[in-house]
Design a protein that fits this description.
Distance between the termini: 91 Å
Radius of gyration: 27 Å
CATH class of the largest domain: Alpha Beta
Strand order of the largest sheet: 3-2-1-4-8
Length: 450
């Protein structure tokens, strides 16, 4: 007797054909096709929009070969640096800013606009030179305004030009840096932006120069809530700079340049101005929800004992406006290398010893990858200790906050993942094409434990 064998599929297909009309079958097939299409679209979306280092299905940092670039949806930004030829500026630009940018930024994210004086032949020579050097910046030349606007002071002229940064770039965001900006950790997207909002790290506490907060109050007509010479880069949306100039000109019934000339003198002197504090307090008052704020109380969180200067907001204001969620520490991408507190010694407006600079670079390389790949070259450091330069800017440490340790662990997990991602694609990291060169790079920097 012949035995007829059926697969499950053909068996149920017979039943289906016997019991379902042709029109109804068409509807069912259509629904199945729609369902499969939706699943396919969702799968593609999940791959493209997986959260960087946040979802359970993301890699743990050991393998990033099959994941999209974590920077892919980071808003467009450019670094803005204003300087001039001569003095120390050119040397700092190369030895501090560009050297550490090459070490700790992915090359395609190192977009720079270098802003120089238009009337100086030496600046044009410098501009032509640096335009052909990594990272091949755009060079913008600024014509001088009436010298009385910046009191014939070159440094104050630079401050003024930062309020016109939109005339040198149309990038969505501008990250202001100085020539003595010193990147001290491998930069990941989420120490520049959170939820597509630029991060601003600000301070609350006694002002370094009391007339700064008075000048901010004069500019804005509001108390200075935050001090913002407190991080690099200072990331600002370009359209907000334009808006700020217009709003303040209308508010004071004078041109912005006239306000810029008058306010410092009224505050106490021609150098009584901090451009970054004016910018970020403007953003705090008028665009707070469009930025991600991390606020450090200095010297610590004891607000009751804090001495506030004349132009600052009141302690009651801080109690009402700054809650615990705004005080979570975050790694700063860079330090201000000519303004340091080292083992109780204060370096202000001066370059620290060579061994300190080289030691900072070695330490940062060790935390980024050296502990895993070159342990013998990094044995003078301890991976479970706080990397101080993540939580230190100028003279104000943040590592008194116990949350710093968990924040650091999270940061370096993401650094490890990002480095794996780049090297797995043969891309440059630390200015290197291969991790085999990393140990030699670390060994080339002198050990120094601050």
């Amino acid at each position: 007797m012949e035995i007829h064998k059926q697969t499950c599929f053909t068996k149920y297909q017979d039943i289906f054909n016997q019991s379902v009309s042709r029109s109804r079958k068409l509807k069912i097939y259509t629904c199945l096709i729609c369902f499969i299409s939706v699943c396919a679209i969702y799968g593609v979306y999940s791959v493209l929009h997986g959260s960087y280092g946040n979802k359970s299905n993301q890699p743990d940092g050991n393998d990033a070969r099959d994941v999209i670039d974590p920077w892919y949806d980071t808003p467009e930004f450019i670094f803005y640096v204003r300087f001039t030829s001569g003095d120390r500026w050119e040397q700092e630009y190369r030895e501090f800013l560009i050297r550490t940018m090459r070490l700790f930024l992915p090359p395609e994210r190192a977009k720079v606009v270098a802003v120089l004086d238009d009337e100086k032949e030496a600046d044009h020579d410098l501009g032509q030179m640096i335009a052909n050097e990594w990272p091949f910046p755009k060079v913008c030349y600024r014509k001088p305004e009436d010298y009385s606007i910046y009191h014939n002071l070159g440094k104050v002229r630079m401050y003024l030009d930062m309020f016109y940064a939109d005339e040198c770039t149309k990038s969505l965001y501008i990250g202001f840096v100085d020539t003595d900006t010193f990147f001290s950790t491998f930069v990941t997207p989420d120490i520049l932006f959170e939820n597509h909002k630029p991060i601003i790290v600000a301070k609350v506490g006694p002002s370094a120069y009391p007339c700064w907060d008075i000048a901010t109050e004069i500019f804005l007509g509001k108390k200075e809530a935050l001090q913002c010479m407190s991080t690099f880069p200072v990331m600002v949306k370009t359209e907000h700079i334009i808006e700020m100039r217009k709003r303040l000109a209308v508010q004071h019934a004078k041109t912005f340049n006239t306000l810029f000339r008058d306010a410092p003198i009224e505050a106490g002197g021609s150098f009584c101005i901090c451009q970054f504090s004016i910018m970020c307090n403007y953003l705090w008052y008028y665009h707070r929800s469009e930025y991600s704020w991390h606020i450090q109380f200095v010297p610590n969180s004891n607000l009751a004992a804090m001495e506030l200067t004349k132009g600052m907001a009141s302690k009651q204001y801080y109690k009402q406006e700054i809650n615990a969620s705004l005080t979570v520490p975050i790694p700063r991408p860079a330090i201000h290398i000519r303004y340091l507190l080292l083992n109780g010694i204060r370096f202000e407006q001066q370059e620290p010893p060579h061994e300190v600079i080289e030691g900072f670079i070695r330490e940062s390389l060790c935390y980024a990858a050296g502990f895993d790949y070159c342990p013998l070259s990094c044995e003078m450091y301890q991976q479970n200790k706080i990397h101080k330069n993540l939580f230190l800017f100028e003279f104000h440490p943040w590592f008194w906050d116990s949350r710093c340790h968990s924040v650091q662990v999270k940061h370096y997990k993401k650094v490890k993942y990002l480095i794996s991602y780049y090297f797995s694609r043969g891309m440059e990291v630390f200015g290197l094409k291969s991790l085999t060169q990393l140990c030699s790079l670390i060994e080339a920097s002198e050990p120094y434990d601050a």
